[in-house]
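In response to the reviewer comment on reproducibility (Comment 2.3), we provide here a single inverse folding case reported in full, input and output, so that an independent group could reproduce the run without further information from us. The structure tokens appear first.
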């Protein structure tokens, strides 16, 4: 409502100023003679001037929604009004008139005008009005005109026009949202169909592999060669399936979309903090930071290769199951390397994705996996993700644990400095810990997480 009023005031003020100048122009053409064309002062009391102005207003502007016109001279005295009874009154104490005489054009809504005593022959009508004071303090076509013109403008048409524009805009926005929703439904349906087809293809491949292995024991060298060729075909099929599974990773991963948004934001924060350090200034330019941000969501893409019985297990993993789970770093790396080969190894985006997917479970002291490398042998991108992933896992609700408070998560990260995590990255994290908490709150998807983070 306030916005609509402001727009109406602006429209009414511009229109009133334009009409006031048009009135002056027509008045000038009506009363200027060779005798007063040389720059004499304007005199409303001269014969014919008042009638000329009244005719102009009533016959030229009666259809432009003008409800009342009042002209004040430079002393604030009313020298003309469409309501004759006002002529001659002293309005010098009126604050709006005083400000207008100083050159200030002002518009405001007029809600309490009493029209009960108006002359029935007058042109004035009751409606939604804006009152505008227009100042004249200059030579106007060689005729000196001074004072203030006050116009009451009926804005019902402008209000209706603006409301119609707003309604039309809302209809367009609603239509766009409906269209986007339909498109999203179509995409979701198609992805679900692809997922079903891929799962069926994988099941068929596994059956074929078992059959081939059984035949290998009983077949001669020729059959063994055929089995070998067939196994190669299956390997190629599985490689192609890995590309497709990357699209479906978010469907199989029990972690939420909020986890992906939070971790990529954490990685970007840490990179931007270390960018200010002389040690990392050359390595962390803005383009690299953006690539890290885009690559981060692929850190657990290898989980598409982990069996559901392990990936979705709610209890503690056995040693054997954990060993299988640890292979997700290898699966992720292999899938991305294959994609790099398809792109001739020219994708720096996939380079960072490969580093993160393969190295984010490594630890600073060499006790991590899959290779057990340590220190700066671990890529910087993976060191960022190590802190981001652990922090988010701690403060998030999982099927096997409740969310930890932010303070406890910070304490665990601090205690892991120099053992689990890169000391420099931990120092950056400690400076940014409150920002981490705000990001976690922004993308939290569970009431329990919100409550714990707010403690």
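Designed residues, in position order:
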């Amino acid at each position: 409502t306030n916005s609509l009023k402001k727009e109406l005031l602006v429209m009414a003020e511009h229109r009133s100023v334009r009409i006031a100048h048009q009135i002056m122009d027509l008045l000038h053409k009506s009363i200027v003679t060779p005798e007063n064309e040389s720059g004499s002062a304007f005199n409303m009391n001269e014969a014919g001037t008042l009638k000329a102005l009244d005719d102009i207003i009533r016959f030229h502007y009666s259809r432009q929604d003008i409800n009342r016109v009042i002209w004040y001279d430079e002393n604030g005295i009313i020298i003309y009004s469409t309501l004759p009874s006002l002529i001659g009154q002293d309005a010098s104490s009126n604050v709006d008139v005083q400000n207008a005489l100083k050159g200030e054009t002002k518009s405001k809504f007029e809600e309490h005008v009493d029209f009960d005593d108006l002359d029935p022959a007058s042109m004035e009508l009751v409606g939604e009005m804006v009152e505008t004071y227009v100042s004249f303090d200059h030579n106007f076509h060689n005729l000196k005109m001074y004072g203030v013109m006050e116009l009451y403008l009926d804005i019902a048409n402008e209000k209706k026009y603006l409301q119609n524009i707003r309604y039309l805009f809302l209809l367009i926005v609603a239509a766009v949202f409906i269209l986007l929703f339909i498109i999203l439904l179509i995409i979701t349906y198609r992805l679900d169909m692809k997922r079903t087809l891929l799962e069926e293809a994988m099941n068929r491949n596994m059956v074929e592999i078992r059959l081939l292995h059984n035949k290998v024991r009983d077949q001669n060298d020729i059959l063994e060669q055929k089995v070998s060729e067939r196994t190669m075909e299956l390997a190629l099929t599985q490689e192609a399936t890995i590309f497709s599974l990357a699209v479906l990773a978010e469907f199989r991963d029990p972690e939420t979309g909020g986890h992906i948004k939070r971790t990529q934001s954490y990685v970007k924060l840490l990179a931007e903090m270390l960018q200010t350090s002389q040690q990392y200034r050359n390595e962390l330019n803005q383009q690299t930071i953006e690539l890290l941000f885009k690559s981060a969501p692929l850190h657990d893409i290898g989980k598409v290769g982990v069996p559901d019985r392990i990936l979705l297990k709610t209890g503690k993993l056995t040693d054997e199951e954990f060993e299988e789970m640890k292979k997700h770093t290898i699966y992720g790396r292999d899938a991305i390397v294959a994609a790099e080969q398809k792109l001739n190894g020219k994708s720096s985006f996939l380079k960072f994705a490969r580093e993160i997917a393969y190295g984010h479970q490594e630890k600073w002291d060499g006790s991590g996996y899959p290779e057990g490398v340590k220190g700066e042998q671990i890529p910087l991108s993976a060191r960022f993700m190590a802190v981001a992933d652990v922090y988010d896992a701690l403060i998030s609700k999982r099927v096997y644990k409740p969310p930890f408070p932010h303070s406890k998560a910070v304490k665990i990260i601090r205690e892991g400095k120099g053992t689990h995590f890169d000391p420099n990255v931990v120092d950056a994290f400690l400076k940014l810990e409150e920002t981490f908490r705000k990001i976690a709150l922004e993308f939290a998807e569970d009431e329990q997480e919100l409550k714990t983070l707010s403690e």
